[in-house]
Design goal:
By secondary structure, this protein is an alpha/beta fold. 31% of the residues lie in helices and 21% in strands. The chain contains 11 helices and 17 strands. It has helices at 16-26, 42-50, 67-76, 96-102, 167-172, 185-195, 228-241, 246-266, 272-291, 329-341, 390-393, and strands at 6-12, 34-40, 58-61, 82-85, 90-92, 110-116, 123-125, 128-131, 136-138, 145-148, 154-156, 163-166, 200-210, 319-325, 345-351, 359-362, 368-372. Strands 1, 2, 3, 4, 5, 6, 7, 10, 12 and 13 form a 10-stranded mixed β-sheet that branches. The chain has a 4-stranded mixed β-sheet with strand order 14-15-17-16, with helices on one face. Strands 9-8-11 form a 3-stranded antiparallel β-sheet. β8 and β9 form a beta hairpin. The protein is globular, with a radius of gyration of 21 Å. The two termini are 34 Å apart.
């Protein structure tokens, strides 16, 4: 494990329940030298007191609807050699932070990992590159830690909910551009790192689970409530990076958003009038983005606050597995919860319906629950599906498990 200290920043607004679950998982990280900085509104700060974390973390009050500014506020309070980020509606697997920071031993400026979707199995954000036009290209890592060399107009995409940066480099480049209130804020920073000549790394073991919780920007089904900020960020991004291709790439971006909305409409998640209204909001956002002044990156000063090493309330050591039939789920869940209280990271495997979908989620009781069928597809979102009986699948499906014990 890297000897470098880490500052983990968690921005949160209007989601105290999600923040609580995220921090519960953070307590089980197997990294031993990190601090936690929560940049949150009043509801989030109150939640810290409720779960007894106020004295063990750095709390930064923040009430603006601007995730770039929130992250920069976290950077200003960060004292670690590496600065990592995770969103409040995501949870990290126990090995996440170690895997992410170990990648810096390869001499990179930033690193990212695998982000799984709400089912906890399929990739929400697979490894990919992002270019000057905000277009993504899939990438096939050749090793557990895949290093990407800097290239003109292209960079490894480090998702904002699963990334880490060399602290000195991040400050020198000015952190996140506050003109991106959300959307493309991470892509812009990735390109700026590449332009400055920094290498980047994708770590296959650095895994987080991202739920896409409903907010004032989207429904629980990821239908946008407005596309104004997406339009504004797209136009601003293209002005910064696409040179003379702004107009043509804006047309591509609008067509992509229209197709996305039509898919939601076909699925019954919105109506035709919603498609028209949302595209109009995209167009309005584009006008705003074309008028936003291009910010000049200013270096951020090192934090004046000392490093505040995070100490979990329970010292988690072993990682155990509890497995059995879903019929006995009440007993098995109780057993899993008790093991967590006794200082174990726990994965509970429940055998479900024969053709049920595989799902993995971190629970409010502090254990990972993995539901499988006797025979079922293990990766529903991939082209190749692997069919295996439960007894062959259990050992390889525990989130971050290293040692296991099965409860019959």
């Amino acid at each position: 494990m890297s000897a470098k200290s880490v500052s983990l920043i968690v921005p949160s607004q209007g989601r105290p329940t999600d923040l609580t679950l995220c921090l519960l998982a953070v307590e089980q990280l197997n990294h031993t030298n990190f601090e936690v900085i929560v940049v949150a509104d009043r509801a989030g700060l109150d939640a810290l007191g409720t779960i007894g974390m106020s004295e063990r973390i750095k709390a930064v009050p923040f009430h603006e609807t601007n995730i770039s500014q929130a992250r920069n506020a976290g950077i200003e309070n960060a004292s670690g050699d590496i600065i990592a980020f995770i969103d409040d509606d995501a949870v990290p697997e126990p090995a996440w932070l170690c895997a992410l920071t170990d990648a810096f031993e390869s001499g990179v400026g930033y690193a990212t990992g695998l982000t799984l979707g709400p089912d906890g199995v399929s990739a929400q954000y697979p490894p990919r590159l992002v270019d000057f036009a905000a277009q993504h290209t899939p990438m096939s890592p050749r090793s557990d830690v895949h290093v990407v060399e800097p290239a003109l107009g292209q960079a490894l995409k480090a998702e904002g909910t699963n990334c880490a940066f060399d602290a000195a480099a991040l400050r020198a480049l000015g952190g996140f551009d506050p003109a991106f209130r959300f959307y493309l804020d991470d892509a812009d920073l990735n390109l700026r790192f590449a332009q400055a000549g920094y290498r980047a790394a994708f770590s296959a073991e650095a895994t987080v689970h991202h739920r896409f919780t409903a907010s004032d920007r989207r429904t629980k089904h990821r239908v946008p409530r407005s596309l104004t900020e997406i339009g504004a960020s797209t136009a601003y991004y293209l002005r910064k990076h696409a040179d003379g291709a702004v107009a043509s790439e804006l047309n591509v971006a609008r067509a992509s958003q229209r197709l996305r909305l039509i898919r939601h409409m076909v699925a019954g998640r919105c109506e035709p009038r919603d498609v028209r209204r949302l595209l109009e909001s995209f167009d309005q956002g584009v006008l705003e983005g074309l008028a936003r002044p291009i910010s000049t990156s200013l270096s951020l000063r090192p934090s004046a606050r000392s490093f505040k090493r995070f100490e979990p309330r329970v010292k988690f050591e072993a990682h155990e597995m509890v497995a059995g039939s879903g019929i006995r789920r009440r007993h098995l869940r109780s057993a899993a919860g008790e093991r967590v209280k006794n200082g174990s990271r726990v994965t509970l495997v429940l055998k479900g319906l024969p053709l049920g979908r595989e799902r993995t989620a971190f629970t409010a009781s502090g254990y990972w629950e993995h539901r499988v069928g006797v025979f079922q597809p293990s990766k529903p979102a991939t082209a190749v599906e692997h069919w295996q009986p439960l007894h062959k699948r259990v050992p390889g499906n525990a989130a971050g498990a290293k040692r296991s014990r099965t409860l019959a």
